[in-house]
Protein: (2Fe-2S)-binding protein
Organism: Streptomyces klenkii
Amino acid sequence: MEPPETTSTVTLRVNGVQHSLDLDHRTTVLDALREHLGLTGAKKGCDHAQCGACTVLVDGRRTNSCLLLAVAHDGAEVTTVEGLAEGDALHPLQAAFLERDGFQCGYCTPGQLCSALGMIAEAGAGAPSLVTPPAEAALSPAPVPLSPEEIRERMSGNLCRCGAYGNIVAAIEDVTR
């Protein structure tokens, strides 16, 4: 009996560019991005999906890339922090983070930015959170207004060891007004 194959060719469309990669079946999306494509914006923080430093958008939804096996996402569209700006023009969230000092050491910032982008889309599609008032949640799919409480709840999976949370919330508020 022949041993099973341990690698597969995986196609990922990352920041608008298609890549075909020969990957070990155990390779995560995070490791494919960092080690095979040289995109080091998404960080390996805890490697257990508890800190959010590895957050990217996969098919438009925010996700912790450290737990996603690349072979299970063959054909997926991945957006990393490197894909947010358009040329020299920063994405509005990036500009707001700079304006509001929404970072200190910067380690969590790429994950914070991708998570914020995904969170804004989720709220815009009417997805309620734990703090969404029942009357507003009942209006789904109407957009959920992003109050500071909503933003804090929705961003709670992204940790900042420096404690820049107040500035992160303010930056997101600036973009969503």
Summary: Residues 15 and 83 are 5 Å apart (CA to CA). The domain at 92-176 is CATH 1.10.150.120 (DNA polymerase; domain 1).
